[in-house]
Recover the amino acids of this structure.
């Protein structure tokens, strides 16, 4: 896109200072685009996508940049940058898998501008599988009031993502006495800046050698992030002997919803995911004796 085209299509930009102003600006109309850090929109422009005629920047909204504990859990303002999440001591203590995910998103310059809310609202961000594994809830403004729903429901309801404003991410705070393990792995052509071939996030809690809780999630690239619930159930209830491993491999392989593109086949992505999960289980069950 040349400079003349860019100058001729400069969008009309509004800067509300509170969520209550969003309705007055008709922010939810189809011809208006909401932006936070703007990093994803910049990528779209550079790849030839049309520049929206109207933008509403959320960067001046008050009260959406904190990370704090509340009576409902660990609350992350949706305008918190990825770099902030990467370094925050509360997240390091209670949600280390999210910290690890943020470290692997794009480049440092993008993480300094890009927000955790924007990464979620992209629908494909590497933070999503990590947040799914933690059973995150999302709080959003629907134009008149606030509502809180599970992350998975938000992902399954694209109209929410398009029409409403994500304001907070809420994570449960678990007991420090529980034996919890988190694991995050991003497989890609390069470590951070390119889209992942597949991203795997695992969060679990052991009671001896028994899983009290197990959340297996995949995402990254063009995947719609999802949990592998059949595989979780098999591991918790049926995985007892070596002969069960092949059955589990096949179950994971078949449960992964993926795709083929110019960089990798669906078969490759399925095999990589299956091997990563089995390696995680072998390593951690061995540690448990």
């Amino acid at each position: 896109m040349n400079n003349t085209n860019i100058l001729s299509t400069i969008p009309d930009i509004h800067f509300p200072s509170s969520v209550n102003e969003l309705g007055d600006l008709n922010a939810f109309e189809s011809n208006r685009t909401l932006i936070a850090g703007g990093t994803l929109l910049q990528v779209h422009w550079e790849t030839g996508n049309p520049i929206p005629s109207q933008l509403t920047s959320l960067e001046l909204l008050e009260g959406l940049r904190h990370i704090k504990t509340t009576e409902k859990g660990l609350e992350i303002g949706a305008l918190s940058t990825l770099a902030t999440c990467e370094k925050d001591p509360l997240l390091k203590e209670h949600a280390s898998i999210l910290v690890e995910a943020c470290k692997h998103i794009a480049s440092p310059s993008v993480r300094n501008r890009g927000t955790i809310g924007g990464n979620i609202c992209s629908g494909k961000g590497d933070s999503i599988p990590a947040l799914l594994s933690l059973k995150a809830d999302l709080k959003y403004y629907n134009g008149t009031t606030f509502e809180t729903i599970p992350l998975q429901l938000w992902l399954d309801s694209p109209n929410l993502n398009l029409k409403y404003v994500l304001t907070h991410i809420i994570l449960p705070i678990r007991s420090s006495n529980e034996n919890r393990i988190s694991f995050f792995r991003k497989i890609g052509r390069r470590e951070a800046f390119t889209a992942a071939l597949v991203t795997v996030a695992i969060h679990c809690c052991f009671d001896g050698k028994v899983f009290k809780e197990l959340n297996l999630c995949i995402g990254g690239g063009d995947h719609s992030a999802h949990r592998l619930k059949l595989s979780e159930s098999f591991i918790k209830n049926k995985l007892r002997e070596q002969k069960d491993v092949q059955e589990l491999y096949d179950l994971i392989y078949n449960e992964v919803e993926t795709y083929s593109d110019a960089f990798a086949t669906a078969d490759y992505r399925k095999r990589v995911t299956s091997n990563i999960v089995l390696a995680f289980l072998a390593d951690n069950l061995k540690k448990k004796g």
Notes: The chain has three domains: 3-57, 67-171, 179-287.
